[in-house]
Design goal:
Blueprint lengths: L1 E7 L5 E7 L7 H10 L7 H9 L3 H13 L17 E4 L2 H13 L1 H4 L2 H13 L18 H4 L5 H8 L4
Antiparallel strand pairs: 1-2, 1-3
Helix pairs in contact: 2-3, 4-6
Length: about 160
């Protein structure tokens, strides 16, 4: 994923800075720092990743902080305060595909249709155009009337290929 900060410098000029932030590629020390700043929001790095995918603000700030610490190792988490609109990110399809693969590899989650559907829906919302290799055709928690609105793998494939 790319994390982008849009701000202004001392002269008022707009400055855009981007960093590559690959949650699965962080050094162990960076992942441990993220766990430490989680407080009551998250205890583990995996919980942080789930909150980041859900766009939880503290998780976004932690990812941004890690990027800043790569050039300023003494920067403290509590010293990072930005406007919500200043820090954004985007996922590339390769990142989202890796997230899906790592999710379905876990046998406990892979057998849970509800969890598979929920995670698939998050990836689709984030812009994933990949094809799932396990069934995610309906939300098992949905009522029959809700199921008609649920994204199916087939519908998603049709949208991502222009209906072909």
């Amino acid at each position: 994923m790319m994390i982008r900060h849009t701000g202004t410098d001392e002269t008022g000029e707009i400055v855009v800075t981007e960093w590559l932030f690959e949650p699965g590629e962080l050094a162990s020390a960076e992942a441990e720092e993220i766990e430490l700043v989680g407080g009551v929001s998250w205890e583990t790095y995996g919980e942080f990743q789930a909150l980041l995918a859900k766009r939880q603000r503290k998780a976004i700030r932690a990812a941004y902080w890690i990027c800043l610490r790569r050039t300023d190792p003494m920067l403290q988490f509590d010293d990072v305060s930005v406007k919500v609109s200043e820090v954004t990110w985007r996922y590339d399809d390769a990142y989202l595909s890796r997230a899906w693969e790592s999710f379905v590899i876990d046998p406990e989650r892979n057998t849970d249709q509800a969890a598979r559907y929920e995670f698939y829906a998050l990836l689709v919302e984030a812009g994933w155009t990949g094809t799932p290799d396990v069934s995610v055709d309906a939300d098992p928690k949905a009522t029959p009337s809700d199921s008609a609105d649920a994204p199916t793998a087939t519908e998603h494939d049709a949208k991502s290929t222009g209906g072909q």
